[in-house]
Amino acid sequence: MGVRQQSKRDVAKKMHERYLKASRGEKGDLLDEFVELTGYHRTYAHQLLKHGPRVVTALKVCAESLGW
């Protein structure tokens, strides 16, 4: 059983905050932990931890669902 997408976003948000404050060695450990937990490719996981997950606004979701 995999981790749900919303759960992955929640974990990324929380770990992003820790990642920014971590030393270089700690960042590697956090990245390893995040990759194992989410199953994401290491490069993508690094970008998420470095920049944080994208914020999807309600208006954007509505527009996309309507095909605008």
Quick summary of this structure?
By secondary structure, the chain is mainly α.
Walk me through this protein's architecture:
- With 68 residues, the chain is mainly α.
- It contains four helices and no strands.
- It has helices at 5-21, 24-38, 42-51, 58-66.
- α1 runs antiparallel to α2 (24-38), α1 packs across α3 and α2 crosses α3.
List keywords for this structure.
68 residues, mainly alpha, 4 helices, 75% helix, elongated
Q: What is the gyration radius calculated from CA atoms?
A: 14 Å
Report the portion of residues in β strands: under 5%
**Average residue pLDDT:** 89
Helix content range: over 70%
Number of separate helices: 4
List the helices and strands and how they pair.
Elements: H1 5-21, H2 24-38, H3 42-51, H4 58-66
Helix pairs in contact: 1-2, 1-3, 2-3
